């Protein structure tokens, strides 16, 4: 009996020790927290192909975000000369029914002419981000915002913008604007 209880006690001690020292192994589809191996990426088939890898972008320079936001703020307040300090000597501007490479002088005239009929502009910023291609050749600041304006006759209107602004050497070299017009409010009856 003593031998049996000794074996039973030893078995119980070994069982308890093994339970305390047991390390949970991750399941086959779980990544280990301290694993040095990258997680296996699924092979995704996209319906369309593009000229670079699908995951081509990293977070870009926040200084470039500040350049673009400060230029937009200067335009919003009517300070065209300050706004244009952020632009290169020539800019590729793409927008609704517009696509041209223009000089900074032409851009200056365009911006100043637009202000001749305006009393005010108000920007309601929704979001912004900066991205840079993995090969570090292309850097863009993306903006999402609503632009409201009042002309000198008192008429107000607004439009939603999504802008991609390309930055090179700290200057805006490309402005690609996508816009959404809001529906005309229904008249109350």
Could you give the topology of this structure?
Elements: H1 2-21, E1 57-59, H2 62-76, H3 80-84, E2 87-95, E3 98-103, H4 104-116, E4 118-133, E5 139-151, E6 156-168, E7 171-181
Parallel strand pairs: 2-7
Antiparallel strand pairs: 1-4, 2-3, 4-5, 5-6, 6-7
Notable characteristics:
Nuclear Transport Factor 2, Chain: A; 4 helices; disordered N terminus; 189 residues; seven-stranded mixed sheet; alpha+beta
- Proper CATH architecture of the domain at 57-181: Roll
Number of strands: 7
The unreliable regions are 1-19
Count of individual helical segments:
4
Instruction: Output the structural class.
Output: alpha+beta
Query: Outline, from the CA principal axes?
Result: globular
Rg over CA atoms, rounded to whole Å, is 30 Å
- Mean pLDDT equals 86
- What strand line-up does the widest sheet have? 1-4-5-6-7-2-3
Q: Sketch the topology as an H/E string, one letter per element.
A: HEHHEEHEEEE
Major pleated sheet: 7 strands, mixed
State the CATH topology of the domain at 57-181: Nuclear Transport Factor 2, Chain: A
CATH class of the domain at 57-181: Alpha Beta
The amount of helix comes to 25-40%
Q: Strand fraction band?
A: 35-45%
Q: How is this structure best described in words?
A:
The protein has a domain at 57-181: Nuclear Transport Factor 2, Chain: A (Roll), CATH 3.10.450. The protein contains four helices and seven strands. It is an alpha+beta fold and 189 residues long. Strands 1-4-5-6-7-2-3 form a seven-stranded mixed β-sheet. It has helices spanning 2-21, 62-76, 80-84, 104-116; strands at residues 57-59, 87-95, 98-103, 118-133, 139-151, 156-168, 171-181.
């Amino acid at each position: 009996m003593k031998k049996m209880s000794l074996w039973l006690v030893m078995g119980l001690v070994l069982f308890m020790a093994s339970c305390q020292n047991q390390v949970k192994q991750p399941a086959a589809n779980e990544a280990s927290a301290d694993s040095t191996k990258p997680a296996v990426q699924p092979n995704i088939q996209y319906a369309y192909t593009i000229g670079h890898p699908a995951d081509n972008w990293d977070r870009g320079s926040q200084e470039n975000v500040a350049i673009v936001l400060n230029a937009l703020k200067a335009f919003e307040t009517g300070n065209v000369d300050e706004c244009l300090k952020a632009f290169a000597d020539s800019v590729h501007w793409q927008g609704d029914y517009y696509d041209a490479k223009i000089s900074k002088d032409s851009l200056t005239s365009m911006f100043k002419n637009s202000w001749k009929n305006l009393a005010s502009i108000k920007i309601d910023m929704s979001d912004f981000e900066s991205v840079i291609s993995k090969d570090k050749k292309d850097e863009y600041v993306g903006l999402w915002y609503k632009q409201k304006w009042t002309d000198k006759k008192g008429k107000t209107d607004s439009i939603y913008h999504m802008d991609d602004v390309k930055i090179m050497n700290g200057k805006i070299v490309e402005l690609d604007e996508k816009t959404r017009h809001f529906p005309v409010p229904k008249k109350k009856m």
